[in-house]
Write a structure and sequence with these properties.
alpha/beta, Rossmann fold, two-stranded antiparallel ribbon, globular
Length: 339
């Protein structure tokens, strides 16, 4: 089923839960991603994160559950599209990668909705991807899936009016780790998919990392205030331990794949994060500087894990990150127009 719904509620806020199976496009006014719908999704957690979906805000069309992997794969992606584009418009695109410790989370969660609608309102086509999260072989299949999100956008550039030369990636937490791996390992022989888009590049031109793990070998625990405590932490990416297979841990760590050709990177991290220690972001910034890669590190005081571009939990961030992220992507994904 493919459906495009142009819905314009006239009275008050939209109430109730919405569920759309298969591939479905939504367009609506008056939606509040921080309201009842978002709260329902956030409360649902890992077991039922997609139980309630809110309609798209004005100016955005959402196409849900679009197949993008090999036939038979259950994982799909959600597209966030700018509404009412002229026929000759070519928009830059961004792949959004959700978090969840590589084992949970959902492409339609509140953070991903916030990012997707923010970018689509600003003229970007976004693909929020679901990836493999179960089984002993989820790594590097999850990375392959994310790279196939990039390839899907290039494959269907004409259909979705995409500028295939200007594609970025953004992710939070485990999604931040995967976004960095997408950005820094294009064409890597061990970390690149062979199907279903052979010959199509998964290289991206810009990356935004929200509190992602950057070095599995050095990840630490923290105290209750987010101060790193020097105690190494494990990872749920694969069963191999750090001691038993350090090379595997290194291969899966973004910092070891940085080169001078790596794309510009924006790093966002809360100083009170107790899930991913803030030194992970500082280490990445140091490595990027050593290789001369354009980057920015923004640390947010009194902010913990799992924030979106506007809020941490139910509280506004000390700085609105929407203009920060949009300014970064605009700089690197929107080429200047010819006079």
């Amino acid at each position: 089923m493919n459906c495009r719904i142009g819905w314009r509620p006239r009275l008050g806020a939209v109430a109730g839960a919405l569920w759309f199976g298969a591939s479905c496009c939504l367009s609506a006014q008056g939606a509040d991603p921080a309201g009842a719908g978002a709260a329902a999704v956030a409360a649902a957690g890992k077991t039922n994160a997609r139980a309630a979906l809110w309609p798209a805000p004005e100016g955005v069309v959402i196409e849900r559950d679009v197949p993008y992997l090999a036939p038979g794969r259950a994982e799909k992606l959600d597209l966030y599209l700018p509404a009412n584009r002229a026929a000759n418009t070519r928009s830059p695109a961004v792949v959004i990668i959700h978090g969840g410790g590589w084992t949970g989370g959902d492409k339609a969660a509140a953070r991903e909705f916030n990012i997707g609608t923010t970018l689509a309102k600003a003229g970007y086509v976004c693909a929020s991807v679901e990836y493999l999260k179960e089984g002993p072989n989820k790594w590097p299949a999850n990375l392959h899936d994310c790279k196939n999100g990039v390839r899907f956008l290039r494959k269907h550039a004409d259909r979705y009016q995409i500028d295939g030369d200007h594609i970025g990636v953004i992710g939070g937490s485990a999604g931040g780790h995967l976004a960095l791996m997408v950005a820094y390992t294009a064409g890597h022989p061990e970390l690149s998919p062979s199907e279903p888009y052979p010959g199509i590049s998964d290289r991206v031109q810009a990356c935004v990392d929200l509190y992602g793990i950057t070095d599995l070998l050095t990840r630490q625990g923290t105290d209750a205030q987010g101060n790193p405590n020097g105690q190494l932490r494990g990872a749920g990416l694969f069963a191999d331990t750090r001691e038993a297979n350090p090379e595997k841990w290194k291969l899966a760590s973004p910092v070891y794949h940085v080169t001078r050709e790596s794309p510009p990177t924006l790093i966002l991290h809360g100083l009170a994060d107790t899930t991913v220690d803030r030194d992970q972001s500082s280490e990445l910034a140091k490595v990027l500087a050593q290789h001369g890669v354009e980057h920015e590190l923004l640390l947010l005081a009194e902010v913990g894990h799992t924030f979106d571009l506007e809020k941490w939990g139910r509280k506004p961030l000390p700085r609105d990150l929407r203009p920060v992220v949009l300014g970064f992507f605009d700089k690197h994904l929107k080429p200047p127009r010819s006079p």
